[in-house]
Design goal:
The protein has a seven-stranded mixed sheet, sandwiched between helices. A two-stranded antiparallel ribbon has the order 7-9. By secondary structure, the chain is α/β, with parallel strands linked by helices. It is built from seven helices and nine strands, in the order E-H-E-E-E-H-E-H-E-H-E-H-E-H-H-E.
């Protein structure tokens, strides 16, 4: 029996399934969500003696419930109340990905943010400050990974274990007024905000 349930959430193509497979290995089950044709993936992993059930939520851009995938993700987070949400984002497209992050934080569920595909972000010349992003999101843990190379996954496992341990406190999940992680998060080497199609346009207020 699992000691805790953790939900993996993120935009499509952020590398969430790669992280799910790395965490669960062969200990996973694939079916469908009740009453839906949307695939449901669950798995187990052992971290520091704890058995953790991981549910890979459908890839979604928001929790607005306009699509079946969005409704499933929102309902699971809000109704099932997992012990933790691991939000996997594409580090090279933070502006688009962090919209879902802010919606997850509004649910009040403890959250760990995973900045995946750091290798792609590096090739694009993005300088990403995980500490600044953490501060902008109320101090939640932020882990950098390149999952396809298994980089950062042990740090993620330890962050998950800390978050669901019996001694874990409730992490702050509110975004301080005036903070804009989507603005501060990534810059090009010349110090300008990065533009990636959903660009850092500087129109947000800075603290």
């Amino acid at each position: 029996m699992a000691n805790a349930v953790i939900a993996l959430a993120g935009n499509p193509n952020a590398g969430k399934s790669t992280i799910f497979n790395a965490l669960t290995g062969s200990r996973q089950h694939v079916g469908n969500w009740p009453g839906k044709t949307v695939e449901k993936k669950e798995g187990l992993c052992q971290i520091n003696g704890q058995t953790i059930q991981i549910v890979d939520l459908p890839g979604t851009y928001s929790l607005s419930a306009f699509s079946a995938e969005e409704q499933i993700a929102r309902d699971f987070i809000v109704r099932e109340k997992p012990a933790l949400v691991v939000n996997v984002v594409d580090a090279a497209n933070l502006e688009r990905n962090l919209y879902l992050t802010t919606q997850i934080l509004e649910t009040g569920i403890p959250t760990v943010l995973v900045l995946n595909m750091m290798d792609v972000a590096g090739r694009r010349g993005l300088q990403i400050n995980a500490e600044v992003i953490s501060q902008g999101l109320g101090g939640i843990p932020v882990i950098t990974t390149t999952a396809r190379r298994n980089e950062g996954l042990e740090q993620l496992r330890q962050a998950m274990a800390r978050a669901v341990s019996p001694n874990a406190g409730t992490a702050p999940t509110t975004i301080p007024a005036g903070h804009c992680p989507r603005c501060h998060a990534a810059k090009t080497p010349n110090g300008h905000h990065a533009h990636n199609g959903h660009g850092y346009n500087g129109r947000h207020s800075h603290s």
